[in-house]
Amino acid sequence: MSTTTKAFPTGFLWGAATASYQIEGSPLAEGAGASIWHRFSHTPGRVTNGDTGDLACDHYRRWREDLALMQDLGLKAYRFSIAWGRLYPEGTGRLNPGGAAFYDRLVDGLLERGIEPVVTLYHWDLPAALDDRGGWLNPDIANWFADYATGAYRLLDGRVRKWVTLNEPWVVADGGYLHGVLAPGHRSPYEAPIASRNLMRAHGAGVAAYRAEGKHEVGLVVNLEPKVPASDAAADVAAAQRADAYMNRQYLDPAIHGTCPDELRQVFQDAWTDWPAAELAAIRAPIDFLGINYYSRGVTRHDPAQWPLAASTVPQPSSTYTDTGWEVCPAAFTAILRRVAAEYGNPAIYITENGSAFYDPPVATNGRIHDPLRTDYLRAHLGAVHDAIGAGVDVRGYFVWSLLDNYEWAHGYTKRFGIVHVDYATMTRTPKDSARFYRDVIAANAVPVSPG
Length: 452
Ligand code: BGC
Fold this sequence. Notes:
Layout: E1 5-7, E2 13-17, H1 20-23, H2 36-41, H3 59-73, E3 77-81, H4 84-87, H5 97-112, E4 116-122, H6 128-131, H7 141-156, E5 162-167, H8 169-178, H9 191-213, E6 217-223, E7 227-229, H10 234-257, H11 263-268, H12 277-283, E8 289-293, E9 298-302, E10 311-313, H13 330-343, E11 349-353, H14 372-390, E12 395-401, E13 420-423, E14 428-431, H15 433-444, E15 446-448
Parallel strand pairs: 2-3, 2-12, 3-4, 4-5, 5-6, 6-8, 7-9, 8-11, 11-12
Antiparallel strand pairs: 1-15, 9-10, 13-14
Beta-D-glucopyranose binds near residues 19 and 223.
């Protein structure tokens, strides 16, 4: 039995996170416009088992039940995303009252239960109608996004106090436009830097729109993965630097310093265009907080076969790996938080996602799902956040990914990240042991140091 605990600061915001396409289902209900994920998941060969988000966790219809689950866990906050096409079926123009009413009800339901809503505007489900006009490759998208954001702020800002412009621009550009494994499925070294630039222009425009409309806080969510050289060899050190520039600094630097990392010219060569100073000035519009998603680190070596980075991740024989093949490394979590504090002006930080996929059975036994690996991951990573706070990093809250098992993008339903199990045949929700653990953490505002 453990008696030692790591206490968190008073008022620490304990939450759980989800995203619209991953949980809602009913993608075309009540006048919603199709998204690029609807289109992508319905394209044969794109997603494992041909899984789609047509039903997902059926949250669109079961949201009341899900609010009750959140309340049972004692969540202080819930991070969800708005499906752009539910509010604006064509991406721009007329507001769809059916979609607006859904988020209206959800926000009211959260507030009635004392749970703070944290809203992400873009978690990857771009309206297909905008993709038809070039999507993230069309420079007009910054204005389209600002108009959509303004509509959402007007609808909910009196009640929502924390807004996120974009979730993980790196994944949108890398998966959607460089490697093509995520919607809209393009594979082009020319398109990826254009998409990144337009994503960050949209972020800046979304922040500016918030300053005109909103009264509370707006931030950006980035996924950070420390890149550690596999050896002292100069080539490996340079590969780790390139990988860091590409995944981490490509978005942090413009958002906070108004610069772009030099290494990107080397990575993209003639496909890279420098961002004009005026654009960078708009992109670095001050944010109220930085959201950080952390899952893993990457021990990196020089690898000319890997296009276009010439870098690859080296498996670590002594490490544990999750079901998505990600190395478990809580110490790297503390390290990246300390680095952000040191190099980016000690911003207010929320951990907007952290969690792990491990195998769980499709059906619960006697109302229980034992998931010791996920619980262990959670305990160790919460300890890492605590260590960072102890070192002076201004971390104000933590959102576990994810509340529910859900649609894990190109993996379909094969990877379970939830602390609450979903039986996809019956839609029954069962809090896993990790949910019970997290509930106790929230209640105590403290994390047990070792298994108790
Ligand atoms: C995303 C989530 C995703 C999770 C696990 C993050 O990159 O924001 O949507 O499910 O990681 O892959």
